[in-house]
Amino acid sequence: MKSFQLPAEPRTVFPAEAPGDTEVFIPENVCAKMIRFAVDDGRLAYVRFTGGCDGNLKALSTLVTGMRVEDILEKLSGITCGRKDTSCAAQLCAALRGAVEDSED
């Protein structure tokens, strides 16, 4: 069996604090308790989830950051989690839809 050495210093994947211009969305019927995000020029510039499946949501955040909002909506809308009729990804879509609608007003 191969072994490996852990780094001496743990690495931080995400900055500890969010940029000041983020929006906050409180998701419904999922494990995550809050989604903080920022959209810039039609792209998701920042997203962090509070609560929920930590590793999965860090991965989701990493994958969608920088993507066009319309592409995120196309790919993630309607995804469910277990027996729930929604998911953290679908709730991110709800947050983004609301932000897009607000920016069009």
UniProtKB/TrEMBL annotation:
**Any one Gene Ontology biological process term?**
DNA biosynthetic process
Q: Which residues form the TSCPD domain?
A: 26-97
- Could you tell me one molecular function GO term of this UniProt entry? ribonucleoside-diphosphate reductase activity, thioredoxin disulfide as acceptor
Enzyme's top EC category: oxidoreductase
EC no.?
1.17.4.1
Its UniProt entry gives the catalysed reaction(s) as: a 2'-deoxyribonucleoside 5'-diphosphate + [thioredoxin]-disulfide + H2O = a ribonucleoside 5'-diphosphate + [thioredoxin]-dithiol
Key words, A-Z = DNA synthesis, Nucleotide-binding
Q: Which domain of life is it from?
A: Bacteria
Q: Which family does it belong to?
A: Belongs to the ribonucleoside diphosphate reductase class-2 family.
What is the official name of this protein in its record?
ribonucleoside-diphosphate reductase
> Which organism is this protein's natural source?
Pseudodesulfovibrio mercurii
Give the organism's phylogenetic lineage: Bacteria, Pseudomonadati, Thermodesulfobacteriota, Desulfovibrionia, Desulfovibrionales
